[in-house]
Amino acid sequence: MVASIDDLSATSRVWVYNIDRLLSESEIQSLNHDLNRFLKDWTAHSDKLKAACKIRFLRHIVIMVDENIASASGCSIDASVRFINKLGQHYSFDAFDRLNYTYLSGGDPIIISHYDLQEAYDNQVIADDTQFVNPLVKSKAEYQNDFLVPLKNSFLNRFIDNLAPKK
After folding, report:
1. Could you tell me if 56 and 12 lie in one domain?
2. Boundary-marking domain end, from 52, 70, 91
3. Does 60 fall in a domain?
């Protein structure tokens, strides 16, 4: 069953899919429709899952499940992964992009390759306080508090030489 993110518990489980490109507004509208249609019928062992979704920064599909209602099972998670893959085929994107990251510059999402992080840092394109998307959040509470984190506090800090110490 489709819910609002606001109606899900703070412990709701979260999956973040990183798309390998920025989406257009029309694609986002269509994707939201497709995602909500999937979530409406999404089940785990015949139990309807209370779920919500959101597309953030033009490239992140966020899906949440309130496991206080029913827990997502291996089969239901596999079904969601197959669905995301199918969306990728339909919209020509890869939703399992792990080597490109998103940071905000003037409020706009910018995609940066893993291999370009150090050079961007050295050239002051990004800095210790540059806000990066954290695709590793696991709960709604983490999503709300830590979806955007400064580079110095992100998992990416280990890939940058001479980064200022964590505060």
Report:
1. yes
2. 91
3. yes
pLDDT of residue 69 exceeding 90, the answer is no
Domain of residue 133 covers: 100-159
Domain count, the chain: 2
Whether 104 is covered by a domain: the verdict is: yes
Residue that terminates a domain, selected from 59, 91, 123: 91
Please, how many CA atoms are within 13 Å of residue 156, restricted to the half-sphere of its CB? 31
Q: What's the pLDDT at 35?
A: 98
Name the token pair of 5. Answer: 């993110």
74 CA to centre of own chain = 20
Does one domain contain both 84 and 153? no
10-63 tens-digit pLDDT: 999 999 999 999 999 999 999 999 999 999 999 999 889 999 999 999 999 999
Looking at residues 108-122, what average pLDDT do you find? 96
Q: Work out the number of other CB atoms within 10 angstroms of the CB of residue 54.
A: 14
Buried b (16+ CB within 10 A) or exposed e, 66-88: bbebbebeeebeebbeebbeebb
Nearest to 16 by CA among 76, 79, 81, 74: 81
